[in-house]
Amino acid sequence: MTTDHTPLAALEQGTPFAARHIGPDAADQAKMLAHIGFGSLDELTAAAVPEAIRTSEALLLPEARDEAGVLAELRALASRNTVLHSMIGLGYHGTFTPPVILRNVMENPSWYTAYTPYQPEISQGRLEALLNFQTVVADLTGLPTAGASLLDEGTAAAEAMALARRVGKVRNGVFLVDADCLPQTIAVVRTRAEPTGVPVVVADLSEGIPAEVAERGVFGVLIQYPGASGAVRDPRALIEEAHALGAVVTVAADLLALTLLTSPGDLGADIAVGSSQRFGVPMGFGGPHAGFMSVRDAYARSLPGRLVGVSRDAAGAPAYRLALQTREQHIRRERATSNICTAQVLLAVMAGMYAVYHGPEGLTGIARRVHRYAALVAAGLRDGGVELVHEAFFDTVTARVPGGAAAVVAAARDMGVNLRLTDDDHVGISCDELTGRAQLAAVWAAFGVAGDAFGIEMLDARTPDALPEGLLRTDEFLSHPVFHRYRSETAMLRYLRRLADKDYALDRGMIPLGSCTMKLNAAVEMEPVTWPEFAALHPFVPADQAEGYLALIRELEERLAEITGYDSVSLQPNAGSQGELAGLLAVRAYHRAAGRPERTVCLIPSSAHGTNAASAVMAGMRVVVVATGENGDVDADDLRAKIEKHRDELAVLMVTYPSTHGVFEEDIAGICAAVHDAGGQVYVDGANLNALVGLARPGRFGADVSHLNLHKTFCIPHGGGGPGVGPVAVRAHLAPYLPGHPLRPSPADGTTGAVSAAPWGSAGILPISWAYLRLMGASGLRRATQVAVLGANYVAKRLEPHFPVLYTGPGGLVAHECVIDVRPLTRATGVTIDDVAKRLIDHGFHAPTMSFPVAGTFMIEPTESEDLAELDRFCDAMIAIRREIDRVGSGEWPKEDNPLVNAPHTAAQLSGGWDHPYSREEAVFPAGGGQAEGQGGAGKYWPPVRRIDGAFGDRNLVCSCPPVADYAG
């Protein structure tokens, strides 16, 4: 017998999760360090990160646990949530996600690790899925142009308000909101309106527009259809009256109800908004869910957010792309009317596929069943002597019980059903796809009505529908073959697989996008998202039913505060853009509370991300641009001159750190001090936090507020362009001004109003970041940051002899990303940044970020998740492309016919004629990458289309599935 053995305690620990998350192992890290001239990660950190900002204290976080231990902790948290049958309504409904969609979209890394489809040739699958979503929205709302999703219903309504103000005839006037709109929507609209001076009037519009409001002028009207109370009213007369006043009319609609009711477009609406949540997307305690907007033709080119359109590729074949990309309004900076950058692509894909799977007949059947249950609830209550507020409704009934509402809601809760406590005298009851006979019996019993579940057939036989005859839908919808072809699970499964096979996502290889941090989203982090205890909770349940969620939220807020050095964090913003807005609104409120309303100037470096300027304008601030020096740093002289010039009106400086150019600026602490000396606040954009975690804390080196991107640094997946979470973190003096919410009042709530429809935004995906922090611990997080900085410097050093690295800090080092310059090569050879990006597809790569922050450059961010083999494969591909550029420059290949200008190359090209000056093999298996492991032979990624003609798609805008006649032709 051997006496030597490994201690049990060491065996119990297993492999630390950080070693799974971080790509390069110790040996590879040593090779990378040697290549750039350092002996250790700590030595690199000391050289790259300015001493003035480095923290010497270890983060006070719980010790890292293994995957099994973290899942056990999450199970314990989940068990503290009580999942009752929700009949609360208010825009959130129980739904059944078809397992084929749950498993093959929501839980499939081919879909959830993809990036925004800015490279359309390698995004044809998700673009087609989004076109399906747009078609669903356009058909059901009766308005021809629909976007590829917005953040939620509340922000969609706020975007509609901004759109109405921009395109309408009335230059001033008020935005008029019907009192029967969802309360959270009204709150978000008010929050968005106040800083820009838009008056919002909430009034009962059931009898038309009040005369005193009409006298003030009305530029826009918002109606809920059906109303929050459940009432279904005919809004045609109201819409005509609003149009007569010159107003633009927005209808917030329920997509499921629209399978039975006349569409907003046919009613005369100009804009329709809403949420697609009940199309197979779990409630998730409030999100993420895909909001939607559709508009009439006249407003198509003013639509906020993203729009998928049909164009053609180099061979003339149909191909999809993001159309009219100038509508990505952050590109317009301070001229923007919206700061929308993230969408909710993954959830829009799910909702669109729900419609594909069920088809128009299936959706209508679900809607009829939901309505029948509501009609029977109402009939049983009437039989029992309960007064109902409305006779016409779709899925929601409001009952009047003077002084007894709380007792009814409590009795229903005891029987496993959550009803809506509207006020002391009224109870709301909403039916959904999951409602059954047992719930009807429980509701009747809660009201003290002697209902009998076995007598429902008799009740059903004598109860008419409760939809107004004059509002019944008569036109067809979803007539395209895609909504009729995939009824069996076999067909649906193969359709989803075909679409996924067309796309490039992290499950195929590296996505080296600077500023976007495309890193590993571990399966163990993703798993809890679909547990019913997290997925099936309504956002407005009583707090004692969400104890597990609230504990998780509180712990995540505390840990994010510790990591960033701030005092308080709000998780409500459901995108980085919303986090920016929330942070600036807090700054604005702070100055106003201190009696300094004149402080409205926001200083922003010229290199900053465009959402910064857009958010500042939306927060009621005036943008003043600060110059950026040749080295990429903020021009200190210009900054100090602007501070002095605007000293008495300076509200805030917005700065990204490390800089947008991927450099640790040496004087950030001095910059913060100069702004504070002038009475301003400092906003550090958290987009590049992946270079700081465990090394430096913005709240400790001078910043007052930051937003964080959980979908970047903290592992929430990008999902093809959303979901995102953008918490806002602040120092103590700004904490009173964090976002609040009308349906979650508490002493901890802020005073600046709601920025998202749900109290904690996209709460359903917060377990991902909670798990990441718990798995990594303080030392794992620090090591991840160090390896991210190592990877960027390794790539920069390997590529520098071939492409100039545009910006570096002391010692020639970069932060977690680097910018390489293609412009000199373009001037010499005619090969453009687009040509290089498309040629990378032939090598099996997604291109880095193009032309940001400088036109004609690539910004490359390898992240800590990519191992050395993948980093080398990418560098080899870039070096091989440089050799090809030289062949063009030497005249060996013509400028108009070479592998770069013709890239990407499809499999179909190999079977046809070939008259190019390079071989088929050079086209599709380029040297230095095409034959590498996983990318050669059967493992090669084949783009489904050739290079896409964007201008043609913009000139000939097609943004929904073509009609059947076109399809047949």
TrEMBL record:
- Give the GO molecular function terms: glycine binding; glycine dehydrogenase (decarboxylating) activity; pyridoxal phosphate binding
Q: Which SUPFAM superfamilies match?
A: PLP-dependent transferases (SSF53383)
Q: For this UniProt record, give its keywords in alphabetical order, as a comma-separated list.
A: Oxidoreductase, Pyridoxal phosphate
Domain Glycine cleavage system P-protein N-terminal positions: 20-447, 453-740
Cofactor section: pyridoxal 5'-phosphate
- List the coiled-coil residues: none
Cellular component (GO) terms are:
cytosol; glycine cleavage complex
| Xref: InterPro entries | GcvP, GDC-P_C, GDC-P_N, GDC_P, PyrdxlP-dep_Trfase, PyrdxlP-dep_Trfase_major, PyrdxlP-dep_Trfase_small
- Reactions catalysed: N(6)-[(R)-lipoyl]-L-lysyl-[glycine-cleavage complex H protein] + glycine + H(+) = N(6)-[(R)-S(8)-aminomethyldihydrolipoyl]-L-lysyl-[glycine-cleavage complex H protein] + CO2
Q: Which residues carry this modification: N6-(pyridoxal phosphate)lysine?
A: 712
Q: Which Pfam families match?
A: GcvP2_C, GDC-P
Stretches assigned to the Glycine dehydrogenase C-terminal domain: 784-905
Biological processes per GO annotation: glycine decarboxylation via glycine cleavage system
What EC identifiers does the entry list? 1.4.4.2
- Tell me which family the UniProt entry assigns to this protein: Belongs to the GcvP family.
Under NCBIfam families, the record lists:
gcvP, PRK04366.1
Function in brief = The glycine cleavage system catalyzes the degradation of glycine. The P protein binds the alpha-amino group of glycine through its pyridoxal phosphate cofactor; CO(2) is released and the remaining methylamine moiety is then transferred to the lipoamide cofactor of the H protein.
Q: Subunit notes for this chain?
A: The glycine cleavage system is composed of four proteins: P, T, L and H.
> What is the protein named?
Glycine dehydrogenase (decarboxylating)
Originating species: Streptomyces radicis
What lineage does UniProt assign to this protein's organism?
Answer: Bacteria, Bacillati, Actinomycetota, Actinomycetes, Kitasatosporales
